[in-house]
Amino acid sequence: MLRWAGVDDCAVAVSLGADVPFCLAGGRARVTGVGEGLSPLPFQERSFVLLIPPLVVPTPDVYRAWDARRAGDGAGPGTPDPHGNDLEAAALDVAPALARWRDLLGERTGRRPRLAGSGATWFVEGEPGELGLAGCEALVLDGLRAPLVAARTVPAPA
Fold it and tell me: Do 147 and 137 contact (CB within 8 A), yes or no?
């Protein structure tokens, strides 16, 4: 909407939410602060498969859990996630069922799924066919269905 309205002011974007400046800029970037610090990175063509579990993981609850982990020993939120999402442990505190969906996707693909944002979507890098998911539209766990979505990166708008 902001692009459509001709808004490119980062201050306006960040006032709407921490991830809005990144979405407005598009492409690939390192983000700092509360979302206002954007350092563009070169485009990389990549493919992913996303698993969208039928779970609700409230973002405020995840950040409270992250804060509680950090306050526990004063040393920070725990060991940083080697897979790139420091919120994963806190999200699992809030919604332990996330772990079962992560493990199912990992078993099916042979890859370590990563959490998107504060949850609940898990993703693995690769094409559905190379991941053993060709023709698979969803994974099922305990009778619950989680859609699979294939996605590709796209260059930032010119």
Answer: yes
Tokens (6 digits) for 37 = 């610090």
Beta bridge partners of 147: 138
Distance CA 83, CA 102 (A): 13
Global confidence as pTM:
0.81
Name residue, tokens 């999200």: 91
The pair of three-digit structure tokens given for residue 19, joined into one six-digit string: 């991830």
SS3 assignment, position 29: strand
Domain ranges within the chain, ordered by starting residue: 1-42, 43-152
**CA distances to 25, 114, 139, 147 from 157, in Å:** 8, 26, 33, 28
Condensed to tens digits (0 to 9), the pLDDT of residues 108-155 reads 999 999 999 899 999 999 999 999 999 999 999 999 999 999 999 988
**What is the CATH architecture of 43-152?**
2-Layer Sandwich (3.30)
Three-state DSSP class for residue 133:
coil
Residue 21 · residue 33 · CB < 8 Å: no
Q: Tell me the C-alpha to C-alpha distance, in Å, between residue 158 and each of 2, 25, 27.
A: 15, 10, 10
